[in-house]
Sulfide/dihydroorotate dehydrogenase-like FAD/NAD-binding protein (Thermatribacter velox), 283 residues
Amino acid sequence: MFKILKKQVLTPEIKLMVIDAPRVARKAKAGQFVILRINDQGERIPLTIADFDPEKGTVTIIFQEVGKTTMMLGEMEAGDTILDFVGPLGKEMEEKNFGHVVCVGGGVGIAPTFPKARALKEAGNRVTSIIGARTASMLFWEDKMREVSDKLYVTTDDGSYGEKGFVTTVLERVLEQEKVDLVIAVGPVMMMKMTSLLTKKHGVPTLVSLNPIMVDGTGMCGCCRVSVNGQCKFTCVDGPIFDGHAVDFDELLSRQRIYLEEEKRALEKYLATRAKEEAHYAE
Ligand SMILES: Cc1cc2nc3c(=O)[nH]c(=O)nc-3n(C[C@H](O)[C@H](O)[C@H](O)COP(=O)(O)OP(=O)(O)OC[C@H]3O[C@@H](n4cnc5c(N)ncnc54)[C@H](O)[C@@H]3O)c2cc1C
Ligand code: FES
């Protein structure tokens, strides 16, 4: 059992939890993830390690409530326990001095961008970060990103905070004005696709952190397969970080939609049960 030590509501849909998981915290590296299961009937969901403290033995996760399991997790509180918390999984990011690195984080992807930017800064890189969200209330960790970046740009799609536009709007300007040695992008698949198309035009190497549907996280079920350079790769063991110029993003986008109907039904059933329970206790 893994105890939730702290819960923080970052935005109405995005929550942070600090989990007591000393063995995971001791081995964690930037770029890796965990797979957790709330209870013995729960599904296994992958979440990136957003931060970790080997001395305190804690791992921080940040998740967006998109369906049944993330919503159930969001309802848990400090003091509650999670049944399984397996990790660190996936390959770590290469932590070396590339020169000038631009870290791009979109939406909940800001969370996994943070440990990467921090590790790259510690490795001696000049780090420029660009973070963006749909609107001001969906933005978080600006302060933490600023701490690990030489320069930070903030965008919102609706212009309610920072610069109006997408993260790629700012990235294009940076690529035109400065020499960039590497771009790292984490966020929605469409954002990573657009970033990779842009950096390809400018000839700048690009890493992306993929988020296909996963089940076992051990390379056995084949659920998380993606095409990279025309070759089949399993994101859980070969990734999640890949060369953005080699990923078949259109295939990834369509594979992510495979279980849309089932996911919708699971969420509707869960919300109906919750509403019934709430009505019962209100009586
Ligand atoms: C390596 C990796 C790291 C991730 N890190 C984060 C993170 O740090 N924060 C965060 O908010 N989300 C992260 N995700 C996505 C997260 O796993 C899904 O949002 C979650 O599984 C949704 O579960 P649900 O039951 O709430 O929603 P569902 O109703 O089951 O699904 C809603 C959507 O979530 C995605 N999804 C569903 N099941 C899975 C699954 N088993 N694996 C991957 N995606 C799934 C699908 O695109 C689906 O359309 C990550 C995914 C991967 C693969
Ligand atoms: S999640 Fe099963 S092979 Fe990767």
Observations:
- The chain has a mean pLDDT of 92.
- The longest strand covers residues 2-9.
- The radius of gyration is 19 Å.
- The CA atoms of residues 226 and 233 lie 5 Å apart.
